[in-house]
Amino acid sequence: MGKTKLEYVWLDGYKPTQTLRSKTKIVSDFDGKLSSCPMWSFDGSSTRQAEGNSSDCLLKPVALFPDPDRKNGYLVMTEVLNPDGSPHESNGRALIDDDDNDFWFGFEQEYFLWDPSTNLPLGFPTGGYPRPQGPYYCSVGANNAYGREIVEEHLDLCLEAGINVEGINAEVATGQWEFQIFAKGAEQAGDQVWIARYLLERTAEKYGLSINWHPKPLKGDWNGSGMHANFSNSTLRNAGAKDAYDTICEAFGPLVKEHIAVYGADNDQRLTGAHETQSIDKFSYGVSDRGASIRIPIATVENGWKGWLEDRRPASNGDPYKIAARIVKTVKKASEVVTA
Fold first, then answer.
1. Domain 3-91: homologous superfamily in CATH
2. What is the distance of C-alpha 302 from the center of its chain?
3. What is the pTM of this model?
4. I want to staple 335 with a disulfide (CB 3.0 to 4.6 A). Which of 89, 235, 240, 304 is the partner?
């Protein structure tokens, strides 16, 4: 009788930033299909998702990935449900209205490799500072790039798991890196980002390091960490007119507070108007403008106004489910105006 390890992964109820939890279920004769992953439960009173006198929460499997770092293992992304089967209030995935997968998302996930023993990024000298920003972005060499072995191992694990990582690079600050994930379907994009985050946390754990997802862990003249959201739907992919893009971009303007509310905690420390950001209380858009709230890629313009947009405001610690849900809601309504 073959035994398989199913690692159920979910998001807890911590506020303002949820964190990853997981536990292993051993099953027999598993056929490798999502539909064969049983519903499971956990103690919600230990994750701020239930009271102790009624603590059961349900784990509904929503995506399945082979676990490349474990024998006979799979990673099961789940969403949290109440005992009656309704979505738990912490369940951001349930907010997404994209049943036909018309929305495509590409998330650019920035993060810091962090040394818990010094409480500093990898590459920071104890009791001092490295050289200023400049030599680290897309760098090579031991004086510039820190933790490449972890980043490369994580990339291989993601690809072996079937996650659609489209690239990685060293970022602007010391010890800062980025990976990019693309998926057709808002839910699928969120699933893949969360499993990629889980694999990164687990890989860094082996090296005695942690991952710092905070949008501005270093004060001063250092870039913060974002999770730029590139997105399109059939309207944007087929518009063929600048006016259509203007209409959709302008729809974001009156909804700054609604978007910022789900774009990640402490994002005000990052969105200051400096370091390639727009101020958190302002809204702007423009072609190739990395200081705007929303950037219109030059490739979209050169393709005859058929392509995608990039919302540069989401923070590195944001929930891709909630970010995608809010973008889908805004763009859907604006698309109705474009196609009317």
1. Glutamine synthetase, N-terminal domain (3.10.20.70)
2. 28
3. 0.97
4. 235
